[in-house]
Amino acid sequence: MEFPDLGKHCSEKTCKQLDFLPLKCDACKQDFCKAHFTCAAHKCPFAFMKDVQVPVCPLCNNPVPVKKGEIPDVVVGEHIDRDCNCHPGKKEKIFTFRCSKEGCRKKEMMQVACDQCHGSFCIQHRHPLDHSCKHGGRPIGAAG
């Protein structure tokens, strides 16, 4: 043996293999060969410190903190009932801008305002001639 100080022995009791590129466990800080470096492979007593998972709410995609000893499903359920901003039964209205033209019941997703009277109109009645605009001076003619 020319290099007695080179490498380290695997800390697994049943292995003790001399490894020239040992891997250190993040949890217990011991050296292991490539076959035993995972926490599951060497039954690491400190694996619980590294196995921290934070559940995510399926509705709002926000992380839900879980204290030690709590069941994640129960905590996420409580979050959905109390703190969650997204409720599946509650739908937001998309078409909220109603046409101001008399007799028209159409609604638009975006506000289409008249430059002269500042009323909100649907696409069909957006031009001043289409909604009989009387404010702001003379209406612009059809030819321009």
From TrEMBL:
Residues 4-52, 93-141 form the AN1-type domain. GO terms for biological process: proteasome-mediated ubiquitin-dependent protein catabolic process; protein targeting to ER. Transmembrane segments: none annotated. InterPro entries: AN1-like_Znf, Znf-C2H2_ZFAND2A/B, Znf_AN1. SUPFAM superfamilies: AN1-like Zinc finger (SSF118310). PANTHER family: AN1-TYPE ZINC FINGER PROTEIN 2A, ARSENITE INDUCUBLE RNA ASSOCIATED PROTEIN AIP-1-RELATED. This is AN1-type zinc finger protein 2A isoform X2.
